[in-house]
Amino acid sequence: MKIQDIQAVQLLLTTPKKIAIIPHRGPDGDAMGSTLALYHFLLKYNHEPIIVSPNEFPDFLAWMPGAQNIKIFEKDKLNCTTILEEADLIFTLDFNALHRTGEMEKVLAPLKAPFIMIDHHQKPDDYAAITYSDTSFGSTCEMIYNFISLLGKKQDIDKTIGTCIYTGILTDSGSFRFPKTTGDTHRIVAELIDLGVENTEIPSLLFDNSGFGRLQILGQALQNMKLRMEHKTAYTTLNQDELNSFNYVKGDTEGIVNYGLSIKGIQFAAIFIENADEKIIKISFRSQGDFDVNQFARDNFNGGGHRNAAGGKSVDSMQETIQKFEGLVTKISI
User: Fold this and answer.
1) CATH 3.10.310.30 describes domain 212-329
2) pTM to 2 decimal places
3) Of the ranges 87-91, 112-116, 120-124, 132-136, which one carries the lowest mean pLDDT score?
């Protein structure tokens, strides 16, 4: 982060302000962790921070400190619009293009308050007055730790803030298995544990607290999995009827795409999930090694993300989407 940007943020935060904090639509552990960590930090300086999420967050993240105070735009558009319009300052975390907020983009785009972007994805848009963008980080939560430290406020990171940061690092690093997990990542985590962060309890809250329906959905996805060993690819599908039959709730499909990569010889994995309400097929891609799923998603499925983890969508039917995907797989080199 440039020194002039640090100084600009310090100046903006000198006096108490109404501050809106925005995660991306469909917030994951990193989006929730970074927004909540920043929320608790700003409270220490008598600001009035409010997190406004474009839509609901998964149930398995509801335990996070402060999650009960998050406003949901889709559930209360009028009140949330007022909050955003009255904000003196707006932070956008874990995304770098306003369209990632869905319908909320129409409210955010014309706002005159300065935006501060903190994000680790590629190709950021230029809507923010201050941009802290660095793709070398494995999570926005790790960037929030650095952001607070750069402001000279590292001593304010306590167990509550640390719990939020730890959650985002843990989830976005694939439990410390993804390539961008560095020595610095582990050093930060060690400091958080020393602050009292429950490093054995949090994984259980995230991964071992499933409803039976979530396990049934996982079983269905594994049954549906197809292998294309000659192309080092595995993919699976979940249609709306399958989700409904197991009483799907938001978050039940989180992490399923990673199972494909656990198969010997597989370097590229994908999951295709039907969303009948939005009339789209939601897609997640994962890879190991050098295959760039970010570019693959951008080129073919109106998406993007990271080199080894990205998402996309299709407005075609499930059958047409899979046919397109299988045709593309035959042409790529992995």
Assistant:
1) yes
2) 0.86
3) 120-124
